[in-house]
Amino acid sequence: MPGTVLLLAASPMGKGCLVDAASVLPVLAAVPPPVLAGAETANVVELADPLEPQAVLTRLRAAAAAPGPLTVYVAGQLQLDRRQRLPHLALARTTPATVRYTALPWHWFREELRLRPAGATTVLLDLHADAETWEWLRGNALDCGPAVTVYGRVAPPAGRGRRAVAAPSYMKAVATILRSGGRPGLDRLHQMAAARIAGDGETGDLVLPARAEPAPPDQSPVQTPARTPVQARTPTQARTPVPVPVPLPTSTPMTPPPMTSQPPSPVPVPRPADFVPDRLGPWPQPPGGTPAADVDMGADVDMDAGAAGEGDPHADISAAVRSGRHAEADALAARWERAAVVAHGAGSEEAFHWAEVRADLAMFAGDAEGSCRIWMGVAGARLDAGQPADAPAVEAAVDRAHHQWGRIGDAARARELGPALTRLRGRVPGRHEGALDHVQEHLRQLQTQG
Predict the structure, then answer these.
(1) How confident is the model at residue 157 (pLDDT cuts 50, 70, 90)?
(2) What is the chain's Cα-based Rg?
(3) DSSP letters of 410-422?
(4) Taking a C-beta distance cutoff of 8 angstroms, is the pair 278, 360 a contact?
(5) For residue 225, what are the contacts with CB-CB under 8 A and spacing of at least 6?
(6) By the 8 A CB rule, do 421 and 440 touch?
(7) How many angstroms separate the CA atoms of 338 and 354, rounded?
(8) Residue 4's closest CA among 67, 73, 75?
(9) Percent of the chain, pLDDT > 70?
(10) d(CA 207, CA 151)
(11) pLDDT at position 375, please?
(12) Helix or strand run (H / E) with residue 306
C-alpha cells in the first residue's frame, strides 16, 4: 500500500519571522518519496509558506484520509493566540495580534489525525518558539494525538540582541541523512539528526523523541502528560537535549457491556464538500470531519460481543465504517460511551470523547441530522460543565453542529433544529466571522420552504 507524505514549511513574513522554514523544502524534495514515507511507493504533498489556515487544513485532512502510512514533516514557528493562550503554527500572514485568525491551531493536528490507525502516522517537527510560547512549553505538552509517533525538536528563543533568522537545522539534518542512502529506523534517524545539530553547537532545545502509545479507553483523550521543566538556552550556558516524558497507559481498559443487537446498516454516505463558497451553502467543515469514503479503516474485524472489549475499539469501529456497517460501528461506540459514563460520569472527557465519535459516525453514515443533534448535545454539556464558550472543544462541537445542520436535506427537520442552533451560536460565536448571521439567514430561508 502506498504511503503519503505531507511537507509543511511555514513562517511569518517580515520582522516576526524566527526561522526560514521554507529553506528546508528543496532538501526534503531531493529525497526519494519512498524514503520519505518509509514505504515502497508514496505520494508527496508540499506546502511552502501557505497563507490561509483553512488551506492547510484541507491538505492535512486529505493526507489523514489517505490509506497506508502517513508521514508529516513540519518546519516553522509556534506562537500563542492572545485570547486562549493556545499554540498555533504561524503562517505567512501571521502577526502577534492575528494569531487566532491567521495561524493554524496546533490542536487541529490532533483532530485530523485522531481516526488514523495506531502506528500508521509519524510526525517529524522542527519548530522555533518565541518567548511566550517557550514559557508555555514548560508545563504543557505539544500534543499530536495518542496514536501518533512524534520526533523532532522545538528551539528556544534566540539570545538577547540576536535577531538573525534561524534555519530549520534539525529537519535539514534529517533530510541529509535520508539522502545519503537507506532509511534508518525512526529512533535512529532522530538520534542521528539530534547529534548532528548538537555537534554544530545547537543546544538547549526541547527534544521530542516521543513514541506515542494508544490511550486506553479510561484515559482522557485530551489529558496533558506530566512534563519535566525545560530551561531556555542562554548565551553562556549550553545544555544537552533533554527527552520529554511520553504519556503511557496507566490503567486497565474498561470492558463495555455486551452488545444486544445489530441493526441493519443504512445507505453509504456521500462525500461532503470541504468548503462551499456560496454564503448560504453548508458551513465550512471544521476540523475532524473526514469523509467516510476516504478514511483508512483497516481490515474487517469480527464485531461479536467478545471481541469488542479487546484491543483498540477505534480500530474496530473504523473497520466497520469502511465496510459499510455503520449501525454496528455506532452500536459499539455507544457501548463504550455508556461504560465511560458509568466509570467516569456523564460530564467526563471520556464520555465526551465517545459522544463525539458517535457524532462523526452519524456523519459517515449520511445522517446529518443525527450528527448535528449529537454535536449540539456535546457542546451544551460542555458549557453546562463550566467550560468557557471559547474553549477549543466547545467551539469545535458547535462548528461541527453548524456544518452538519447545513447538510440536512429535509427542510422541516432543519427548521426544527434551527432555533436551538441559533441559541447555541449566540453563546458560542466561534472563529468564523458572521456565524450567527449565517444561521439566522439560512433559517429564514428554510421557513419560506414548504
Answers:
(1) confident
(2) 22
(3) -HHHHHHHHHHHH
(4) no
(5) 141, 245, 246, 247
(6) no
(7) 9
(8) 67
(9) 74
(10) 8
(11) 94
(12) none
**How many alpha carbons fall within 13 Å on the CB side of residue 419?**
3
Distance CA 180, CA 38 (A): 15
The DSSP code for 181 is: S
Supply the DSSP string of 312-333, one letter for each residue: -HHHHHHHHHHTT-HHHHHHHH
Mean pLDDT of 108-124: 87
pLDDT at 261: 34
pLDDT of residue 235: 29
∠ CA 246-249-254, rounded to 5°: 155
> Cell numbers of 120, please?
500508521
Question: For residue range 351-371, what is the model confidence (pLDDT) as tens digits?
Answer: 898 999 999 899 888 999 999
pLDDT per residue over 263-307, tens digit each?
323 322 223 332 222 333 444 455 444 333 333 333 232 333 333
pLDDT higher than threshold 60 for residue 246: no
* Residue 210, pLDDT score: 53
Angstrom distance (rounded) from CA 98 to CA 82: 9
Whether the Cβ atoms of residue 354 and residue 340 lie closer than 8 Å to each other: yes
Q: Identify the structural domains of the chain with CATH numbers, from first to last.
A: 3-243 (3.40.50), 292-447 (1.25.40)
Quote the crossing angle between the two packed helices 392-405 and 368-384, to the nearest 10°: 150
Rounded Cα–Cα distance for residues 219 and 288 (Å): 20
41-87, pLDDT tens digit by residue? 889 999 998 888 888 988 898 898 888 899 999 999 999 988 888 99
The CA distances from residue 23 to 86, 232, 437, in Å, are 26, 25, 42
By C-alpha distance, which of 363, 376, 350 is closest to 289?
363
Q: pLDDT band for 202, please (50, 70, 90 cuts).
A: low
**CA dist., res. 266 & res. 354, Å (int):** 21
CA distance 11 to 92: 5
Q: How many residues does the chain have?
A: 450
User: Could you give the angle at the alpha carbon of 219 between the alpha carbons of 215 and 221, nearest 5°?
Assistant: 70
**Selection from 211, 87, 66, 97 nearest residue 148 by Cα:** 211
CA distances from 358 to 13, 257, 258, 334, 370 (A): 41, 17, 18, 7, 9
Task: Tell me if residue 156 falls in helix, strand or coil.
Answer: coil
Residue type, 73: Y
Cell numbers 481490515: residue? 299
Q: Is the dihedral of CA 330, 298, 190, 77 positive or negative?
A: negative
- Contact criterion met (CB below 8 Å) for 9 and 75: yes
- One-letter amino acid at 64 equals A
